[in-house]
Amino acid sequence: MYDALISDRPYRKGLLPSEAIEYILAGNDTLFDPKVVKKFLRKVTPFPSGTIVKLSNNSLAIVVENFEGQGNRPLVKVFNVNKETINLYILDLRKHENLSITITGVKKG
Question: What is the reported pLDDT for 65?
Answer without folding.
Answer: 97
